[in-house]
Amino acid sequence: MMNTRSLRFRITAWYAGLLAGTLIVFGASVYLGLERYLDWTLQRTLVAECRTISTELLSQLPAKDTAWLETEINEAYAPEVNGLFIRVVHQNKGVVYLSGAPKDGTFDPWRIPFPSDKEMDGSRKLQFESGNRLLINSMTLTTPDGNRFTVESGAPYHQIEVVLHGLLLTLAIYMPFVVSLAVAGGYWLMRRSLQPVDEITKRAEGITSTNLSERLPVIRSGDELERLSMSLNRMIERLDNAFEHINRFSADASHELRTPLTILQLELEGIAQNHRRDAALGDQIGSALEETHRMSRIVESLLTISRLDVGEVKMDKSRLDLGELAVSTAGEMKLLAEEKSIGLRIHAEAGVQVVGDRIRLQQVIVNLIDNSIKYTQVSGMIEVRVGREGNIAVLAVSDNGLGIPAHALPHVFERFYRADKARSRASGGAGLGLSIVKAICAAHNGEIKVSSQEGRGSSFRVELPLLPLFANDGASAALREI
Amino acid sequence: MDVAADGKSGLDLATTYHYDLVILDLMLPILDGGQVLRRLRTENVQVPVLILTARDAVADKVGNFEAGADDYLTKPFAFAELLVRVKALLRRGPVSRSSVVRVADLELDRLAQQVRRAGKRIDLTAKEFSLLEYLMSNAGRVLSRTMIIEHVWDHSFDGITNIVDVYVRHLRSKVDDAFDPKLIRTVRGVGYSIGHGAQP
Predict the structure, then answer these.
(1) pTM attached to this predicted model
(2) Which of A366, A372, A374, A436 to mutate: most B Cβ within 10 Å?
(3) Which residue stretches of B45-198 are H helix?
């Protein structure tokens, strides 16, 4: 089904319409011009005939008889064969010559009326019942000896009509052909010229908040397309700046908040220790301290995320075994899971090597497991799996907990996003844990994906570039198994 | 108050006289701050040390805590923050770092990795041991959850609010539940402390 509103269709339709219009006007002018030209030529031929008969034959008539005239004319013009009409009338003697009926029987020479006075020395058209038309030219002539003749010469229009019909037929066949050829060509050309726009669209679709530093290819055509790609690029740059501005702002703001918060916290701790005996005051200060701690954690997390986003965090990257890291980290988290009688199982393939910051990657594992523990009911199950798939290292943390509603799924990595506000605040999170995970993954050229079914559980999947195994790694991996 | 312009003279001063607090910059001529710290601790000088540094990489931080630093401040810092940190350290008093620490009838041997209460041997996991060691080394001081995490765990566990609580509960069940008086005390909003006068 063709999209009739598309630019390509509309332009092609316009183009075809204009072309068809032009062709019709052109065809009509050719037709009319040719008709007039043929008409004119025929008329000239007839006039010439009349003149020839007058000057060459009729001038000799006094000396010759009418039989001679008949022979001469028949020989010169063969009117029956050529379908011509010739009649010579003498003012007193009447018809001195009349051509015979043409072989194709288009007209009957006997029934052709004599020209009226008005039609003398001019041409006239006769229409027969059969539809044939005859163009007749008449001319009067007075010979030096005083005889007056009227010479008429006619030819059927038929011949002109044949030519014109041929032209009409040619136009009728070729015009649709040419128009459809032009439509196909125009459609193809439009497609070709719109292809760069397609390309720009595809590339623009691929640009998200994570790769705003990329730019679209600029089509150096010096026209609308170049301007379009350049203005899109400028728009992306403005977006990039805006995003950077936001990140910079959160980094600066959280950095500025850090010091006063630490001071507040330390001072409160001092008061709490000095007033150990005063239970009521201790309770109030304790509550204030708890909130300060919470605030500190949020500020720290925010600072981490925005610094990671800005690319300011210096990664202490080294080669490490993701499986080992996962096993040791999960081991430390085991007690937390057991608190809720949640089983924590780990399955790690040996020798899954990546390049990364050990502490940051550990934080990824910690945050994911912590998240799963929070949203899994008592006696649930959490599974951590490390393996390799092609050239990526995969770390997956799955649980059979509460799951995430479908509407919340696209937002879980957004800062401060909580699928269920009441529930999450009680469990102590500020909604930054998964944002940190995402930022760390991005800083490792990796990705985090989530899939979930509400009520059935969630699965988080971290994908990092896998380090290829070298020959001696195989040995060390095997050693570890022992 | 004395000021030393390089690591060596600083170390000499700190080992010769008894100070309440040392503020140590890591970037020092002759002997750098890290070496000064290690030498102080190997010579069993138990003065509280506050480290000033421009490096805030977590690995550096953890390394210095392990070498025996008591607090850590990243440059640039607000002077007010230095002041409260100093006050906080002075409140804590000196820290015992001998191989065996005692709080009431609870005894922890760092070298033998053993814990006894009222003469009875108590089996602890590695994490529980580190936690108890940190608490006992700072007996009488209230340790915040953040401080405990920084010493006993990695920085990565910062975000988890209840990991300290869970471990302290387990520790209590082994160290305190069967005995009196209760030694581990919860200080609301702040954290935990171990001491003689612990209220239940």
Answers:
(1) 0.64
(2) A366
(3) 58-66, 79-92, 126-137, 145-152, 163-175
